[in-house]
Write a structure and sequence with these properties.
By secondary structure, the protein is mainly alpha-helical. It is 60% helix and 6% strand.
Amino acid sequence: MKRIRTYDAQETERMRELHGNPLASFTRRAGAFCCDFLLAWGLFLALLIPGGKLAHRLGYLTADVNLKFDFGHWYSLLFLVLYFAFSTYWGNGRTIGKWLFGIRTVSLVHRHMTLWHSFERGLGYGASALELGFGFVQYFIHPNCRTVHDRIAETIVIQDRISKQKRR
């Protein structure tokens, strides 16, 4: 007898756990993103540029290195994706910018942000930026204030400080 597969709504219980958490405002999300972007830019300048010049002097790179932090070079985009992915993963949804603005990314599927969710979210920022940033503007259209990168990674952004007070 052939076994019939059925849909398993695993995320339903997690979504019920998150029900009622206040969502982060667009202003807080934009502020946190800008803060993290500036921090990533500073880290890039502080780490990769001197590292590239040192690798050239030691003979690991044959051409003189003139690293630039812009969207026209693959290493700049890779650095941004890695910064957002690892800072989201290590902070369990709180990058430094999100921590400063009192917000947090949470998974709709898991209790903790997985590394894969964090990478999807980091890559999703690029999708949100396409078409003149319309993916970010979808915050105002979606009923749960989810942007393109939120939907790609199956996440929402909540006000972290209020949710802690609510649990007490």
